[in-house]
């Protein structure tokens, strides 16, 4: 068995093991851990687009919302029919949730394809703006769809998200992105980022690489959205606005673009920071934004990027 | 017909405000090639300066209103220059992405500081200017709307004068065209960039006051949506192009007002972004922008 697959298997088993002790963990820590896990999935998946492929997307929260709504729609509308009156066994619920998360991921991936095909012709700031625009349009559409709750959002989503699902999807997203980028095919992502013209000159279909990155990134953003919805038990369109996209982008940039380990660390740090600063709640977001400015000036290559020579871009 | 004219007037007055904000975006993009996300929050600060100073002046006068407008513009100009000096200048020459993130950081800083120092609850903006309603055969014109259009037009003419008829304006255009060559002919780029931020921020401050006069409920997050839309207006007209920003603002404001008055009103916020996407896909340089060919 090749090594990455072994890691995946071990992490899945570990996730299963940890979930058996979740009763003994303080619920507050469990919540924080779930939040960290969801943010890691979001940051790692965005890193494939922004970091490895070098396409600046500002609409990740939009894909997250598509996933959250699709997954919630499956458990809310299909769930009662499939599970029956008594709510089904734990195994049945687990299978339903897996189906819901897959549906969320696929829904978001489809949205990623629809958004990606036209907009990936653009570069840099313009791409950032178009993805931002699409994110906002998705939000306005959800606000206007009656059967998905309109502006009030969806309530009463069953709390299916457990620490097992979160850790499993963290492992799966890290595995997929790492294997994809390190494969022979995946070198194309890095080539597209480093020099698009040169990549095309040696015969790489850069458009296809960009779209692949976009769709895979959107899939995991959607799955993270599904986890988020079944964790908070309620979702509103405004929960997935531009600010949320920025939050994820900041994780990727602070972690160091195209550095999965750094991005994971940044996601952990940036989720913990507001929790640690909770006693001075009023000022915590001021400190957060000040840190962001100072870090960009002092360490532009990212907090956890120690490789020299990779500092630019 | 009168309803059409009414909506057109509403649209133009909203569009004039978008245009004022868009000018700041477009000028900064012109000289530094990055999206100044903090611009929308300078607009918010302008409205709050108006709120705090406006209380010390008698209401419903022309003079008091003008003083408030000038103070807000000066305050915002200072703030804009301060932001440029402290946050953006250390990053001169850094990757665009880093500057973009810093701009987002400054934007968040202003918003959250606003929530702590001004309070997060919406405030009612004082009626600093004389305001009456005029009726012309079924057409209701509030004096504030006329005021917005007149003040915005005057400011834009003033800007046109500064950019095309003064030495500083020539320097601004030179830096925008080619920063290195500008330096070679003896232009101090830092001074020019600082001036550009001051000028753009003053216009945003004026926009803040005018916006607050027509929509008199202000809060620290009031800048986010108008800011994004003004940026769309700048792209629509052709980013870096000053008349383009004015045209984009007026067009966007008018279209949005008409949509708001139709059965599609709940999609009002999506209109700006739909226009943005269509423009970027079919005419990335904007309506008045020049198409540039990328050289390898």
Features:
heterodimer; A: 313 residues; mainly alpha; ABC transporter involved in vitamin B12 uptake, BtuC; B: 296 residues; two-stranded antiparallel ribbon; two-stranded antiparallel sheet; 11 helices; globular
Identify the overall geometry of chain B: globular
Helix content of chain A: over 70%
Order of helices and strands of chain B: HHHHEEEHHHHEHHH
Radius of gyration of chain A: 19 Å
The assigned CATH architecture of chain A is: Orthogonal Bundle
* Largest pleated sheet of chain A: none
Protein described:
The complex is a heterodimer of chains A (313) and B (296). Chain A has 12 helices and no strands. With 313 residues, chain A is mostly helical. Chain A has a single domain (4-8, 28-298), classed as ABC transporter involved in vitamin B12 uptake, BtuC. Residues 308-313 of chain A have low confidence and may be disordered. With 296 residues, chain B is mostly helical. Chain B has one domain. A two-stranded antiparallel sheet of chain B has the order 1-4. In chain B, strands 2-3 form a two-stranded antiparallel sheet. In chain B, strand 2 and strand 3 (139-142) form a beta hairpin. In chain B, helix 1 (2-32) packs parallel to helix 5 (143-165) and helix 9 runs parallel beside helix 11. Chain B is globular, with a radius of gyration of 19 Å. The termini of chain B are far apart. The model of chain B has no long low-confidence stretch (mean pLDDT 89). Chains A and B meet through helix 5, helix 10 and helix 12 of A and helix 4, helix 9 and helix 11 of B.
């Amino acid at each position: 068995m090749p090594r990455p697959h072994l890691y995946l298997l071990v992490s899945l088993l570990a996730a299963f093991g940890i979930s058996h002790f979740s009763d003994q963990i303080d619920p507050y820590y469990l919540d924080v851990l779930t939040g960290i896990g969801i943010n890691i999935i979001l940051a790692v998946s965005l890193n494939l687009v922004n970091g490895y492929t070098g396409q600046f997307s500002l609409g990740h929260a939009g894909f997250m919302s598509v996933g959250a709504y699709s997954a919630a729609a499956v458990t809310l509308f299909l769930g009662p029919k499939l599970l029956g009156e008594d709510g089904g066994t734990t195994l049945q619920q687990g299978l339903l949730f897996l189906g819901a998360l897959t549906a969320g991921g696929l829904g978001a991936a489809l949205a990623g394809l629809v958004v990606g095909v036209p907009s990936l012709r653009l570069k840099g700031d313009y791409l950032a703006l178009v993805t931002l625009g699409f994110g906002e349009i998705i939000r306005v559409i959800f606000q206007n769809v009656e059967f998905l709750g309109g502006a009030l959002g969806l309530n009463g989503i069953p709390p299916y998200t457990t620490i097992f699902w979160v850790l499993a999807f963290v492992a799966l997203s890290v595995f997929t992105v790492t294997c994809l980028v390190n494969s022979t095919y995946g070198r194309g992502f890095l080539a597209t980022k480093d020099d698009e013209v040169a990549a095309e000159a040696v015969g790489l279909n850069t458009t296809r690489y960009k779209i692949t990155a976009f769709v895979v990134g959107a899939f995991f953003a959607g799955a993270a959205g599904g986890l988020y919805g079944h964790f908070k038990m309620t979702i509103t369109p405004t929960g997935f606005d531009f600010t949320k996209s920025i939050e994820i982008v900041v994780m990727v940039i602070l972690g160091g673009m195209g550095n999965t380990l750094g991005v994971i660390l940044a996601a952990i740090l940036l989720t913990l920071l507001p929790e640690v600063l909770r006693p001075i709640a009023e000022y915590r977001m001021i400190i957060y934004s000040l840190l962001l400015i100072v870090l960009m000036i002092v360490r532009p290559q990212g907090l956890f990027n120690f490789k020299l020579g990779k500092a630019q871009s | 017909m009168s309803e059409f004219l009414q909506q057109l007037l509403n649209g133009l007055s909203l569009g004039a405000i978008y245009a004022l904000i868009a000018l700041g975006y477009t000028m900064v993009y012109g000289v530094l090639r990055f999206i100044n996300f903090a611009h929308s929050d300078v607009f918010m600060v302008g409205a709050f300066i108006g709120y705090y100073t406006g209380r010390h002046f008698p209401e419903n006068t022309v003079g008091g209103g003008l003083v408030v407008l000038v103070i807000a513009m000066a305050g915002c100009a200072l703030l804009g220059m301060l932001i440029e000096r402290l946050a953006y200048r250390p990053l001169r020459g850094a990757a665009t992405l880093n500057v973009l993130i810093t701009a987002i950081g400054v934007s968040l800083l202003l918003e959250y500081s606003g929530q702590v120092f001004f309070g997060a609850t919406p405030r009612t903006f004082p009626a600093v200017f004389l305001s009456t309603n005029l009726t012309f055969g079924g057409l209701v014109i509030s004096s504030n709307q006329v005021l917005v259009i007149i003040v915005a037009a005057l400011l834009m003419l003033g800007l046109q004068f500064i950019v095309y008829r003064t030495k500083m304006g020539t320097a601004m255009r030179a830096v925008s065209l080619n920063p290195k060559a500008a330096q070679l002919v003896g232009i101090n780029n830092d001074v020019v960039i600082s001036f550009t931020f001051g000028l753009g921020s003053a216009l945003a401050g004026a926009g803040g006051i005018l916006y607050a006069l027509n929509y008199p409920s202000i809060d620290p997050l009031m800048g986010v949506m108008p800011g994004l839309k003004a940026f769309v207006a700048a792209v629509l007209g052709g980013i870096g192009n000053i008349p383009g920003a004015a045209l984009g603002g007026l067009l966007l404001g008018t279209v949005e007002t008409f949509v708001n008055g139709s059965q599609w009103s709940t999609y009002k916020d999506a209109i700006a972004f739909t226009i943005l996407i269509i423009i970027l896909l079919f005419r990335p340089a904007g309506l008045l922008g020049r198409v540039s060919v990328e050289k390898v």
